[in-house]
Inverse folding.
């Protein structure tokens, strides 16, 4: 049986809260319960839970997102806090989970996620969080290229772009061979 890890991507205030700086809004808030239940389930089964959270510096001239999106998840701001019940679950289990910052869409880009998963013999990643068609998508593509099996619970991902969300779910299934729950 393959070992799996739950990867919680960018479920932060700026991406989820109604007044977040780059928010998915209501669709983002609607997946809070699914993500929280999965965290509880993985912890109970002693499986790996990883939080990967975007981090940026104000007006960073060297970052491509500076020209693409409003400032979000700026270091030292509450926009980087996890959101709602997911934040509570993180606080409850923070000694048992892995949490790191990422500076690009993919949780694998410029981080030690791959080596950390391989050290734990993990061959399957379960991806939740936001946005389905941006950071979840890029993480899924990297996971695919690195040889991981991928599962995406469709009630555990969301985007501010409904068309992009639907397209990404199709792409996960038909192009990356992901299991959609
Ligand atoms: Zn970003």
């Amino acid at each position: 049986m393959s070992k799996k890890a739950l990867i919680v991507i960018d479920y932060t205030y700026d991406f989820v809260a109604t007044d977040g700086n780059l928010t998915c809004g209501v669709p983002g808030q609607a997946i809070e319960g699914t993500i929280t239940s999965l965290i509880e389930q993985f912890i109970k089964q002693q499986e790996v839970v990883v939080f990967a959270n975007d981090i940026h510096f104000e007006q960073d001239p060297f970052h491509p997102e500076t020209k693409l999106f409003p400032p979000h998840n700026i270091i030292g701001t509450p926009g980087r806090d996890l959101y709602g019940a997911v934040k509570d679950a993180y606080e409850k289990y923070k000694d048992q989970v892995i949490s790191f910052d990422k500076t690009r869409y993919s949780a694998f880009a410029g981080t030690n996620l791959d080596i950390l998963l391989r050290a734990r013999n993990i061959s399957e990643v379960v991806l939740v969080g936001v946005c389905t068609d941006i950071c979840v998508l890029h993480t899924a593509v990297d996971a695919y290229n690195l040889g991981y099996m991928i599962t995406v619970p469709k009630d555990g991902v969301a985007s501010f772009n409904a068309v992009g969300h639907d397209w990404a779910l199709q792409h996960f299934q038909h192009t990356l061979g992901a299991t959609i729950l």
User: Anything to note?
Assistant: Residues 106 and 139 are 4 Å apart (CA to CA). The two ends are 19 Å apart (CA to CA). The mean pLDDT is 97.
